Amino acid sequence: MKVFSFLFPPPVFAQTTPWSGKCIDGDVATIAGLECLFANILSIATSFAGLAFFIMLLAGGFKYLLAGGDQKQTAAASATLTHALIGLVLTIAVWLILKFIEIFTGIEVTKFQIG
Questions:
Q1: How far apart are CA 70 and CA 67, in angstroms?
Q2: 57 neighbors 79 (Cβ within 8 angstroms)
Q3: Which of 32, 60, 62, 103 could staple 80 via S-S, CB 3.0–4.6 A?
Q4: How far is it, in rounded angstroms, from Cα 98 to Cα 78?
Q5: Which residues pair with 25 in a beta bridge?
Q6: How many Å separate Cα 66 from the centre of its chain?
Q7: CB atoms within 10 A of CB 44
Q8: Which of 105, 56, 110, 63 is nearest to 84 (CA)?
Q9: What is the pLDDT of residue 89?
C-alpha cells in the first residue's frame, strides 16, 4: 500500500560514492580507497555548508522578525544574516578559485587521485 510507504523506507547507505573497482580488492580496501573516502567527505562537507547557510538564514530572519524594534536584537539578527551571506560567498569563491586554477593550469585540482 502506498499510504503506509513511509513506514518502510528504502535502505540508505552512508557513502555517496560506491566503493568498487580500484577502491576495494575483494573484501579488502586498497590505498586507492582514499579517493572514494575523500569524495564522500567532500560531498558531505558541501552539503553541510549549504545546510548551515540555510539554517543561519532562517535563524537570522526569525530573529529579525521577532526583534520588535529593539536595536540590540535587530543588530544581532543583522549580524547573523551577514555571517550567513559571507559564508555562502566564501564557499562559492573557494570553488570558483579552484575551477580557475583548473582552467588556467590544466591540472584537475578538484579531483583527488592516487597514482
A1: 6
A2: no
A3: 60
A4: 30
A5: 28
A6: 29
A7: 13
A8: 56
A9: 92
Q: How many residues does the chain have?
A: 115
C-alpha grid cell, residue 33? 580507497
Domain ranges for the chain: 25-105
- In the beta sheet, which residues pair with residue 28? 25
DSSP per residue, 69-94? T-HHHHHHHHHHHHHHHHHHHHHHHH
Identify whether the C-beta of residue 67 lies closer than 8 Å to the C-beta of residue 74: yes
pTM: 0.64
pLDDT at residue 63 tops 90: yes
Rounded distance, CA 92 to CA 68, Å? 33
CA dist 36 to 22, 30, 45, 48, Å? 9, 10, 14, 18
**What percent of the chain shows pLDDT beyond 90?**
30
